[in-house]
Amino acid sequence: MKKYSTLLIIFCIITSCAFKTKANNGANGKSGNEVKNSEIIEIKADDIKKSMEYLASDELEGRATGTKGIEKAAIFIENYFKKNNIKPYFETYRDTFKLGELTGYNVVGMIEGNDSNLKNEFIILGGHYDHIGKGKEVNGDTIANGANDDASGTIAAMEFGRYFSKSKTNKRSILITLYSAEEMGLKGSANLAKRLKEKGINAYTMINFEMIGVPRAADKSMAYMSGYNRSNFAPILNKYAGEEVVGFFPKAKEFQLFFRSDNFPFFKELNMPAHAISTFDFTNFDYYHHVDDEADKMDYNHMANFINKMIPALEGMMNATNKEVVLSDE
Questions:
Q1: Considering the domain boundaries, does residue 326 fall inside one?
Q2: Hey, is 53 helix, strand or coil?
Q3: Backbone angles phi, psi at 28, to 5 degrees
Q4: Does the pLDDT value for residue 308 go beyond 90?
Q5: What is the DSSP annotation of 116-149?
Q6: How far is 278 from 152, CA to CA, in rounded Å?
Q7: How many whole angstroms separate alpha carbon 277 and alpha carbon 226?
Q8: What is the DSSP letter of 86?
Q9: CA 185 – CA 261 distance, rounded (Å)
Q10: What is the mean pLDDT of residues 209-213?
Q11: Distance between CA atoms of 108 and 150, rounded to whole angstroms?
Q12: Helix, strand, or coil (residue 50)
């Protein structure tokens, strides 16, 4: 009996040591608590679909800036932030601006970094939550719901916010920024970028998620980045993702995509790496600015897969001790 008791004690000690080593090392250098938190956070297709079915519903009437529909969208995003403990960056979640007689709102939340020094540097993630409102009538339908453009990118940014607010695995601080008036000429993001510059924000990088609701062809990279050669952002993200998630799209320069999305005002005002990432490449979805850009045409498994693959890519970049992502000479 004494022999078996001794063996049992030795086994328990060895097992305990092994468990503590795993917990302390963690995945990607995280602490035990961070690993425990991140392991229970799931990016689920069903959750994405639920958000999409509201943001791209007829109730929101196409989310044109200054309408009752986009106000409902803003409230939905604010409530999502509150529920997931994403704090306001300003006094409230809203960054308000005027466009003539119209009032627009960007919705801005913050997740503070967990490193005493690096938390003073900010990673900006965003997407535009407005759309065009009405479109050319098809079978009696005139509401341009804007599921892919850009409820999909909006939801991706929201899901990243939820993940990092719960996992607490970000050393640098994160701004989750959702813009209105993109469809009116990037007016919302321009207002926010200027305001952040005036505030003296120490911003490191910016990623705008633009139309990620549909997958590319199987022989293409999962996503592409506008202004690919303007920085080393894509290879850095791919390094941490462990695969090529973000590739090069030859027509991006021809279409001037770098200048046509909400990344551009941040590049212009803050002189930092700022790009748009998309999985829509003008060949894989026929309903750009069309009333049939509907929730039922989105690929939710693709969206969840994209977001899940981007998490370690973002995490690696935002937790590196030095600023690896730098502008190039292009």
A1: no
A2: helix
A3: 55, 30
A4: yes
A5: TTGGGSEEEEEEE----EEEEEETTEEEE--III
A6: 10
A7: 7
A8: P
A9: 9
A10: 98
A11: 16
A12: helix
How far is Cα 291 from Cα 270, in angstroms, rounded to an integer?
36
Radius of gyration of the chain (CA): 21
CATH of the domain at 134: 3.40.630.10
The number of domains in the chain is: 1
**Residue written as token pair 């690896």:** 324
Q: Do the domain assignments include residue 28?
A: no
What are the two backbone dihedrals, phi and then psi, of residue 59, each rounded to the nearest 5 degrees?
-55, -30
Residue 323: alpha-carbon gap to chain centroid: 20
Residue 177 has pLDDT above 60, yes or no: yes
User: Which of 242, 241, 246, 256 is CA-nearest to residue 277?
Assistant: 246
Q: What is the pTM of this model?
A: 0.89
Distance (Å, whole) CA 121 – CA 116: 10
What is the Cα–Cα distance from 51 to 46, expressed in whole angstroms? 9
Q: Is residue 312 part of a domain?
A: yes
Nearest alpha carbon to residue 226 among 251, 204, 190, 196: 251
- Domain of 228, in residue numbers: 36-319
What type of residue is 232?
Answer: N
Quote the pLDDT of residue 8.
42
243 lies in a domain? Answer: yes
Q: How many helices (H) and strands (E) does the chain have?
A: 10, 11
DSSP string covering 215-243: ---TTS-SEEETTGGGBSHHHHHHHHHTS
